[in-house]
């Protein structure tokens, strides 16, 4: 579901034509729909309502302060993975108790920043990190009630069908600890231990995007068996954070809905919640991906001899520096002109070869790498210099992974609210980009 729709042959974002946004703010441009962000957050929250979860939006997926504010106002907590994301969460007005801090390599300075004032949970990923959290907490001589609350990230060793770079809960991954190590670490830091931290939670995140419910069920069942073992050793587990990774609709409606995930997961946890377990979720993509598009303008086109005949290349002003997912993971993003006319409106977000006059083309960027493309070998309407193209489902891991590669300034971001659009990040200038070096 999202609020990007073709009406009378032109793309609207909520009530605003995409072309008007590009004319006003320039390209490349990330455009977010507030109603879509809120709709996705609400749907997920209500699907899991039986567990009364704290839904912590994963800041890494879309870290703009204004987007975070929209979700925090709606009741979201935030999942952060660095001191920078922690600062974003605080500036976005997120109550400290609704912040969770994950990541395998937190520095002592980042840990200290998260204790002042104390956040909701640290998600610790190794014994040495637990030592570091305890060391920083010990130095602060805080009272019992201000001891940092920590959840241990476990690796449940399940293998969902995802790209190798985004499978995090498989054997040999750098994330979390295995169940044996978890038992040992609870004996060292859990209930009854004299460490200046409260280790009473477990955390898992098995990868993303996961288009099936089975891996969640397997991972949660395994982790609940661990909770049972820990209880037998005298350790209370008061929170379980099941991570994120729920799908988004990159191509038509391939992803299970929030309700589908909830139907598989809620029954596993309902009773425990009744007995006092706090459940947390860390979704990013399923909230933000379909709430954003990337607008890019065609600069040039050309035809080159290809292995199977002439091949059309469409060169746009956005590329891997703007949206790296196609280059990094071979990820599919549906791309289509914003103003194709009524005869060429695609029925769904996938190849639609039934439409008239389509020809295969690569949509590429200006970067000096062959891996720089947004879409490969797609049936597209004719495109000419100056035409505007929308790259869909770009709201998650789009702008947050954009770079200055080839010294292109970062794009601007706009938030649409009904008939209004406001700039929520101005376009970087070349002077902005060079400032740290000139003043360094
Ligand atoms: N929790 C943890 C601990 C994570 O590492 C992640 C994502 C999430 C939650 C949120 O996952 P989501 O619900 O957004 O799928 N850059 C990649 C994905 C890497 C995700 C890293 N961790 C992409 O463009 O697909």
Give the amount of beta strand, in percent.
15-25%
Assigned CATH superfamily of the largest domain: Alanine racemase
**Small molecules in complex:** ligand LLP
Please report the total strand number as a whole number. 20
Count of DSSP H/I helices:
12
Number of domains: 2
CATH architecture annotation name of the largest domain: Alpha-Beta Barrel
Radius of gyration: 23 Å
Ranges where pLDDT stays below 50 over 5 or more residues in a row are none
What is the fold's blueprint, element by element?
Blueprint: E1 4-7, E2 10-13, E3 16-17, H1 18-25, E4 29-33, H2 34-47, E5 54-58, H3 65-73, E6 77-80, H4 83-91, E7 99-101, H5 108-113, E8 121-124, H6 127-140, E9 149-153, H7 179-189, E10 198-203, H8 214-232, E11 239-241, H9 258-274, E12 278-281, H10 285-288, E13 292-306, E14 309-316, H11 325-329, E15 335-337, E16 359-364, E17 373-380, E18 388-391, E19 412-417, E20 420-425, H12 430-439
Parallel strand pairs: 4-19, 5-6, 5-12, 6-7, 7-8, 8-9, 9-10, 10-11, 11-12, 14-16
Antiparallel strand pairs: 1-2, 2-3, 4-13, 13-14, 13-18, 15-18, 16-17, 19-20
Helix pairs in contact: 8-9
The structure holds ligand LLP.
């Amino acid at each position: 579901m999202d609020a990007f729709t073709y009406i009378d042959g032109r793309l609207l974002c909520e009530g605003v034509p995409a072309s008007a946004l590009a004319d006003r703010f320039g390209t490349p441009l990330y455009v977010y729909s507030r109603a879509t962000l809120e709709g996705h957050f609400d749907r997920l929250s209500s699907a899991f309502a039986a567990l009364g979860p704290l839904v912590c939006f994963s800041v890494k997926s879309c870290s703009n302060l204004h987007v975070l504010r929209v979700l925090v106002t709606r009741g979201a907590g935030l999942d952060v993975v660095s001191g920078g994301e922690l600062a974003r969460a605080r500036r976005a007005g997120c109550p400290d108790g609704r912040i969770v801090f994950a990541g395998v390599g937190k520095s002592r300075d980042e840990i200290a920043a998260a204790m002042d004032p104390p956040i909701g949970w640290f998600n610790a990923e190794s014994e040495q990190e637990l030592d570091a959290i305890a060391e920083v907490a010990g130095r602060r001589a805080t009272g019992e009630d201000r001891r940092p609350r920590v959840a241990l990230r476990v690796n449940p060793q399940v293998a969902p069908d995802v790209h190798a770079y985004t499978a995090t809960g498989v054997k040999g991954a750098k994330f979390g600890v295995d169940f044996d190590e978890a038992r040992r670490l609870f004996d060292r830091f859990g209930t009854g231990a004299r460490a200046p931290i409260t280790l009473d939670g477990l955390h898992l995140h098995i990868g993303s995007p996961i288009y099936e419910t089975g891996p969640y069920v397997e991972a949660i069942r395994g982790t609940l068996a661990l909770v049972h073992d820990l209880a037998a050793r005298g350790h209370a587990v008061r929170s379980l954070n099941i991570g994120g990774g729920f799908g988004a609709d990159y191509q038509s409606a391939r992803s299970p809905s929030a309700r589908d995930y909830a139907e598989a997961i809620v029954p596993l946890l309902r009773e425990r919640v009744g007995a006092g377990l706090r459940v947390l979720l860390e979704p990013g993509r399923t909230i933000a991906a379909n709430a954003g598009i990337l607008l890019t303008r065609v600069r040039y086109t050309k035809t080159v001899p290809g292995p199977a005949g002439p091949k059309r290349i469409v060169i746009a002003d956005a590329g891997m520096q703007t949206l790296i997912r196609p280059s990094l993971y071979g990820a599919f993003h549906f791309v289509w002109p914003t103003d194709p006319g009524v005869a060429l409106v695609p029925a769904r977000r996938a190849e639609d070869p039934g439409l008239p006059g389509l020809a295969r083309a690569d949509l590429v960027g200006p970067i000096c790498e062959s891996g720089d493309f947004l879409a490969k070998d797609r049936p597209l309407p004719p495109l000419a210099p100056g035409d505007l193209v929308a790259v869909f489902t770009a709201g998650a891991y789009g702008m947050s992974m954009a770079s200055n590669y080839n010294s292109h300034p970062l794009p601007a971001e706009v938030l649409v609210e009904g008939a209004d659009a406001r700039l929520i990040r101005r376009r970087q200038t070349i002077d902005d980009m060079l400032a740290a070096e000139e003043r360094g």
